[in-house]
Specification:
alpha/beta, about 240 residues, homodimer, 6-stranded parallel β-sheet
């Protein structure tokens, strides 16, 4: 763990859903605001679980290039019957679909990003579309230097085009970019492209009743409890 | 002038070179810092005048897709003999080429953007590449919500793909986007795509000795002396 690299990263590229924002409680809260009887926890988990399969349909060529806002709607439409949401109006469905734009950051995030920004370029590297990520940043006060998205590269993570694309955008070698994420698979894919990696513990990503394993993986450059701890490790 | 639109803009998309930052004095200063004998004014005008022809070579297909950083270098290489810069080292040439990353904003910009950001999404819509615009924002403290660039759309302004692309990214109709620029041709192209337009006076864009015409054009939605005046007009 915390393998020393010869050179510090110039760019910190952040995974967003789960790493920066708490999607589980945000989605649960928004569906319950519309229909209090719905099991918000189960609904949030079901919506999120449709995410990877939907992106695979795009990357396999079954679907054309599709923004995450539209994939979210596709998945949501498929959950209506199961969760008894048939009576939602189209306006309510559209509002619910943009709940992903209004997710709150974890408590350490705004202060942590402000510290990290003093010595690094900080950007998103998310499969979320640019508009979604911009609205989320305004909602949560996230001080990104730049919003990078799958939409820029027309490929979703873990496609190498995304990790290598981030390095290319800033004109640096891949080892000068550090991916910051709460997901070991995302970090492993970035590492395979030569990026540095930082794992962030988000034990309650799937809800407080469903804690996930946040054990360190020795292959990561850094392992930090949260963004404040990462800032401390990087001397910010 | 100041044609009333039924709906206020949601997104303000800003041209950057000349509108947000003072390229003329920045480029003149940087070349003179390296070689004091060079006529900084003439050098800045010559470098900038290569910009439109270089982009036309890309859009005509003569050159493949090229980032502005690379077009800037191409133009710079062509100016070396004329301005007696043959003795610059490769490191000095690279440093000079990134002078565009270090341009200072006009004095009203940071405060004006902060006010406009309170009620609108504020983003760049520039032919400059994402890395250049990100470094410039960090250098000048520009509080963009999002950095949009020709690089995202793989087309340079005035291609309609850029203006319409900005509306699409944020999921709004073109008339809810206002292009803010100090150039009537840029604004005319945006208007042809259905965007609102705001002209900003930057009389000294080409240097204090070479003042440009900043007369209002009645076709623009807004005409403002600077960003603070625009903020006032938009109630920010």
């Amino acid at each position: 763990m915390n393998t020393p690299f010869s050179l510090p990263p110039k760019v910190l590229a952040f995974d967003v859903f789960g790493t920066v924002v708490d999607w589980h409680s945000g989605i649960a809260r928004e569906v319950q605001a519309l229909r209090p009887a719905v099991d918000g926890d189960a609904f949030a988990l079901a919506w999120r679980s449709g995410y990877q399969p939907a992106m695979r349909r795009v990357m396999s060529g079954e679907l054309g290039w599709t923004l995450i806002d539209d994939l979210h709607r596709l998945i949501l439409d498929g959950l209506v019957a199961r969760f008894g949401l048939e009576d939602l109006s189209e306006a309510e469905m559209q509002h619910l679909n943009t709940a992903w734009h209004r997710l709150d950051p974890w408590p350490d995030v705004v202060q942590g990003l402000a510290r990290l920004k003093t010595r690094h370029v900080i950007c998103t590297l998310s499969n979320g579309n640019i508009g979604l990520l911009t609205h989320m940043a305004k909602h949560g006060g996230l001080p990104w230097d730049c919003i990078l998205s799958a939409e820029v590269f027309r490929a979703y993570k873990p496609d190498p085009a995304t990790y290598l694309g981030a390095a290319k955008v800033f004109g640096v070698d891949p080892e000068r970019v550090m991916l910051v994420a709460a997901h070991q698979d995302d970090l492993a894919a970035a590492r395979a492209c030569g990026l540095q990696t930082a794992y962030i513990e988000r034990p309650a990503e799937f809800g407080a009743d469903n804690l996930k394993d946040v054990s360190p993986c020795p292959a990561n450059t850094r392992h930090a409890r949260d963004f404040l701890a990462l800032a401390g490790q990087l001397g910010c």
